[in-house]
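This part of the workshop introduces the protein records we will be handling. A record pairs a protein's sequence with a compact description of its fold. Comparing a sequence with its tokens is the quickest way to learn the format. The record below serves as our worked example for the rest of this section:
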Amino acid sequence: MARLVYIPTIAENNVRGGFLGHDNYVKLRNELPEEIRPLFVVGYHIGARLGELLDLRWDKADIKAGRITLDPGMIKNKEGRTLPVYGEMNAWILMQQTIQEQQLPDCDFVFQRRGQQIGEFYRSWRSACCRSGVPGLLFHDVRRAAVRNMVRAGISEKVAMKISGHKSRSVFDRYDIVNERDLIEAAAKLDHYINQTGTISGRISKSKAERGPRTNAKHPN
């Protein structure tokens, strides 16, 4: 009878620690090369994958209707989805559209570099991240920030997953990051709740004391 050999495995932990808060988002946006900024802004707002954004063409970006359409063939999970255009996304995409109409009428890509689809930009991204105080940040971490912002804004998880393109709840949950600010806000809310509860309890005790001790003595008829 053959003996089974036990091979220990390393516990899986693929949850990255990188996270981008809004203040660092603004700093990084301003440090990035001009042609990368619109790509970054849109990624931060809707959490689309980098490949989806790089492949985005003008016939799929309807600014007047306020939506971006991703066809099934464009995306990882093979399911098309519609993404909202909101906030400063609108201004940056309109700027790209103006450049395309006035200078690059033959360019179909929403995000372009000298009229061509943007390719690799790791070196300039890494340098901008260092200057912005977020060394080691990946573009994929921007996707995580978008998920967290949607959840904190009160968007239902079902809708947020539709926007970000997550099919697996477990993967989505990994992206919903708790950072230091969350912990501080949670502590403040708990402190307020505890203090409020203590105040209410104190009022109840005081009220009981003012009424005096209860007695079981029967009143005479």
Strands lie at 61-62, 67-70, 81-84, 112-113, 116-117.
